[in-house]
Amino acid sequence: MAVRWDIFCTVVDNYGDIGVTWRLARQLVAEHRCAVRLWVDDLRAFERLCPEIDVTLSEQWQQGVQVRHWPGEWVPTEAADVVIAAFACQLPSAYMDAMAERQTTPLWMNLDYLSAEDWVIGCHGLPSVKYKHVQKYFFFPGFQAGTGGLLREAGLLERRRQFQQDAGAQRIFLQELGVERAPDTCLISLFAYENAGVASWFDAMASDTQAFHVLVPEGRVLGDVERWLGIDGLKVGALHRRGALTVQVLPFVRQDQYDQLLWCCDFNAVRGEDSFVRAQWAGRPLLWHIYQQEEDVHLEKLEAFLRLYTQGLSQAAQKAISGLWRAWNAGQDMAEHWKATREQQQELAEHAQAWCLEQASRADLAAALVKFYGNWI
């Protein structure tokens, strides 16, 4: 009998929460032969990642995963063998009772947010609260030994390598999105939250001698792009040039296509958690727009990652990329930091590849979860 897993996702940040849980659910089914129910409270957000989703259904199957809409009124359901509360979401009280009523107690885990902070290693795998006799455990994704690792499907890096070595495949993929890449042009993807730093960054690229082509999938940063261009209501397919910079609006694409977009680009600006991890697997230099939290707690997480990520870089490269990330996340002027980053582009490109391989040397998140369950029983 396949081990039954229930994964609960409350959509908070549009796509990050569901992006992570959808990837995880599919991988558990495809690679570990688990029976997975993915409970989602917002099917509209899910639909953007998986267009086949029927938002009117309370239950459906997608890519081997049973997708259940998590409505306000709970329907009595038997608890699974493994229960994951993604990002500390609160489970329905009736479901918690169902966990406690099982003859065999389920493994209950809180799959937490990704962080490079030192304390994560010490807390990973520790017991948390109890509900009746059901013990909850912390499970932390992470970048170091002693954490749960990162989501990475089998063969991902080999598929990426083949794609990045195939200029024809890249050209066909970009053309399907309406993108024509000119020779000797630096291709950049931009997926971010609202950010006042867009104007200074675009100004710097527009006035450069190097040609840049920035691809902007539909999202929250489009308002800042519109203000810089002086245009209202940018639509998919819009293409504008100013100086050395070409800006093009792309449709919001499904996850496998987004991976390929990242693989095509020379530099990727990403946001949140899911796209942040996928940009690291792309093996290209990146810029992370971290999700803003109260009292600037997110900046501590940003600094923790920078301390880890920049190890092994020269002082100049370390200063350049760290300065760029800090300015971006503070909405400050990007011009000098971008110039410094461009001057260190070769070292930063080599470092991105090395970092990717280092992270891939560890167990992936899905495998770590399955192993944790195996050890627990």
Keywords for this entry:
alpha/beta, Rossmann fold, 2 domains, 8-stranded mixed beta sheet, 6-stranded mixed beta sheet, 42% helix
Question: Would you give an account of this structure?
Answer:
With 377 residues, the protein is an alpha/beta fold. The protein has two domains: 161 residues, 3-Layer(aba) Sandwich (Rossmann fold), CATH 3.40.50; 205 residues, Glycogen Phosphorylase B (Rossmann fold, 3-Layer(aba) Sandwich). 42% of the residues lie in helices and 20% in strands. It is built from 15 helices and 14 strands. Strands 3-4-2-1-5-6-8-7 form an eight-stranded mixed β-sheet, with helices on both faces. Helix 3 links the parallel strand 5 and strand 6. Helix 1 crosses helix 15, helix 7 packs across helix 13 and helix 12 runs antiparallel to helix 13.
CATH topology of the largest domain: Rossmann fold
How much of the polypeptide forms β-strand, as a percent range?
A: 15-25%
Q: Number of domains in the coordinates?
A: 2
Main CATH class of the largest domain: Alpha Beta
> For the residues shown, what is the average pLDDT?
95
Euclidean distance between termini CA atoms: 15 Å
Q: What sort of overall outline do the alpha carbons produce when their principal axes are compared?
A: globular
Helix content: 40-55%
Question: Which parts are unreliable, with pLDDT below 50 for 5 consecutive residues or more?
Answer: none
CATH superfamily of the largest domain: Glycogen Phosphorylase B
Main sheet strand line-up: 3-4-2-1-5-6-8-7
What integer value in Å does the Rg equal?
A: 21 Å
**Backbone structural class:** alpha/beta
Biggest β-sheet description: 8 strands, mixed
What CATH architecture of the largest domain do you see?
3-Layer(aba) Sandwich
